[in-house]
Design brief:
Blueprint (H helix, E strand, L loop, with lengths): L2 H8 L2 H14 L4 E2 H8 L3 H13 L3 E5 L2 E4 L9 E5 L5 E5 L2 E5 L1 H72 L3
Antiparallel strand pairs: 1-3, 2-3, 4-5, 5-6
Helix pairs in contact: 2-4
Length: 177
């Protein structure tokens, strides 16, 4: 048995796919379903199954259909508190770190963090828009189905009414009317 076969037997299919994703990410390349299949040699269904699990576990993020990126692993967030003092200074506590900030420093810090706040706001707005679009799409699909069923029922009623009308016309012709 070769060294390559031994290594690939020790790693799981999911680990091979994740390692390939990491390699692509480190090289600044976009990871697609097709590229993952080409690089790993696995079938599309296998790659899709493992990628879906990685997305559910929060290890991978879907950028759009068939395109993925790794989720940056961050440590658990530390407790944060901010206290404004009567003299205008601020005490900022992040975990065990305590910083005394003067008003001008606080303004500069706020200027630096405003981009993060806007980015978070945009991400949240995008998520909410996506949820709304999904709900509207589902409602539209249900309405289309319901309208289609109603049209079928009305067409059946119309056909039955026409059949009754023809039958009535035939009876009138028989009695000489």
């Amino acid at each position: 048995m070769t060294e390559k076969q031994t290594i690939s037997q020790e790693r799981t299919t999911g680990q091979i796919i994740f390692d390939t994703l990491q390699d692509l990410h480190q090289q600044g390349q976009v990871a697609t379903r097709e590229l993952l299949c080409d690089l790993t040699g696995f079938k599309m269904t296998i790659v899709d199954d493992h990628i879906s699990r990685m997305i559910e576990n929060g290890r991978v993020h879907r950028l759009r259909a068939g395109v993925f990126t790794l989720v940056a692993a961050m440590p658990e967030p530390r407790a944060i508190s901010m206290t404004r003092m009567g003299d205008g200074t601020t005490i900022l506590e992040i975990g065990e770190c305590v910083v005394h900030i003067y008003p001008r420093e606080r303004r500069e810090l706020a200027t630096m963090l405003v981009g993060d706040a806007v980015q978070y706001s945009n991400i949240q707005a995008g998520v909410e828009a996506g949820v709304l679009a999904t709900e509207l799409s589902a409602d539209l699909l249900a309405t289309k189905r319901e309208m289609g069923n109603r049209i079928v029922d009305l067409e059946k009623q119309l056909a039955a009414t026409r059949a009754q009308q023809r039958q009535g016309d035939n009876q009138l012709n028989l009695i000489g009317g």
